[in-house]
Specification:
alpha/beta, Urease, subunit C, domain 1, 2 domains, 8-stranded parallel β-sheet, 6-stranded mixed β-sheet, globular
């Protein structure tokens, strides 16, 4: 395999900043990262001059339903290829294919198709063109609160069932990564224990849980929260609910949709102050409408209407987003956050959440060659996904 040497103005690993950086890539892997005067570049290496850019680890999106006119629930090879190619152009190099509440048959079929896509080697390694890697499945529902269901179809919401969860895990063929559920529902505790045993991250979301109910779930192993503030019991000074539990539990990471629509900027400031840079994971919650003009699209079985880039259902409820992670990063920077604090929210934090810190979210030797090149305005100027793009 040819060796590639990439030269950049600076690199954020993201924990460390390296000026006058060089990254050596062989095949799909990073083999060395450091200052130009610290790394020996073999004469045979193909050299890439990226010294006008900042290089960072590729972004990770653990909550995305679609993009480029395609919905994850369709999960055809064409849909998955379109979604992964589109988000890669915006810096996302890996993701979790996220389902919505639907029939068991529909969710299982989507999970099976995603697993087949992964097991067949995905698209980028075959075509050697940049495309995000699908790391597994995020099951958003069907064990959620009808009161906080958002746009998930009420008829598709079912009581938490360990047996049903096991069937969904089997459909995902070992690729179940996150389960979002409402912990206050009867049977939820048994499913949480089952999910933790299966190696899935338990996420609190679409929930009307009280503080006590949320803390009980955390004690059982829940350690993540889906799109915090959205589809949750509101925070009150006398009953802080699930939001109070998330804000005060260091073991729980908090998803945030930083698009200026889902969460008020002041609430973003509160969340970031409470959780710190290591406790927030930026997500897109993107839908098929991402990257598309205003119009009508699908989110699972739900028809959504997009106007001014904002997706809503027929009742006017927010229905996912049209966000990409590069825009989420820039929104955080506009609020005054520093890049060194924001970048982990789309790289090392989600990697740690999924237990993939040696492979994803970092510029270190042995990690996948997932790179994003950012210009002076922190817009994506190029991307490499597992070495694809260096050809």
């Amino acid at each position: 395999m040819p060796l590639h040497a990439i030269f950049a103005r600076r690199a954020l690993t993201p924990q460390d900043e390296i000026s006058d950086a060089v990254i050596l890539v062989e095949g799909e892997k990073i083999v060395a990262v450091g200052r130009r005067d610290e790394i020996t570049v073999p004469a045979s290496a193909r050299q890439w001059d990226k010294r006008e850019f900042l290089v960072a680890p590729g972004f990770m999106d653990v909550h995305i339903h679609g993009a480029a006119g395609h919905d994850i629930m369709a999960s055809t090879p064409e849909a998955l290829a379109a979604v992964t190619a589109y988000v890669a152009r915006h810096g996302t190099t890996s993701l979790l294919a996220t389902t919505v509440a639907s029939s068991e048959e529909s969710i299982s079929a989507a999970a099976e198709n995603v697993a087949r896509w992964i097991n067949n080697g995905q698209h980028s390694t075959q075509l050697e063109t940049p495309a995000a890697e699908i790391l597994g499945v995020h099951f958003e529902g069907p064990f959620i609160s009808k009161r906080r269901r958002g746009v998930h179809p009420e008829a598709c919401i079912v009581p938490p069932s360990p047996a049903l969860f096991r069937r969904l895990v089997a459909a995902a063929q070992g690729r179940a990564r996150i389960l979002t559920l409402a912990p206050e529902l009867p049977g939820a505790e048994e499913v949480i224990v089952e999910a933790v045993h299966a190696g899935a991250v338990v996420s609190l979301g679409h929930t009307d849980a009280t503080y006590v109910e949320a803390m009980r779930a955390i004690s059982l192993g829940a350690r993540h929260a889906a799109h915090v503030f959205n589809a949750m019991r509101p925070f009150s000074h006398r009953e802080t609910g699930v939001i109070g539990a998330v804000l005060t539990s260091a073991s729980v990471t908090a998803e945030l949709i930083a698009d200026g629509v889902h969460v008020d900027d002041a609430a973003i400031q509160v969340l970031a102050a409470m959780k710190g840079p290591d406790g927030v994971v930026l997500v897109s919650d993107g839908t098929a409408a991402t990257g598309m003009p205003d119009g009508k699209y699908r989110l699972g079985a739900v028809e959504i209407d997009v106007s001014g880039g904002v997706a809503r259902n027929s009742e006017g409820k927010l229905a996912g987003s049209t966000l990409t992670l590069d825009r989420a990063v820039r929104h955080m920077l506009r609020l005054g956050f520093q890049l060194r604090d924001v970048l982990p929210m789309v790289t090392s934090n989600p990697a740690h959440l999924l237990g993939l810190e040696q492979r994803k979210g970092h510029l270190i030797a042995g990690a996948d060659a997932d790179l994003v090149f950012l210009d002076n305005e922190l817009r994506v100027a190029g991307v490499v996904t597992r070495g694809a793009g260096l050809n």
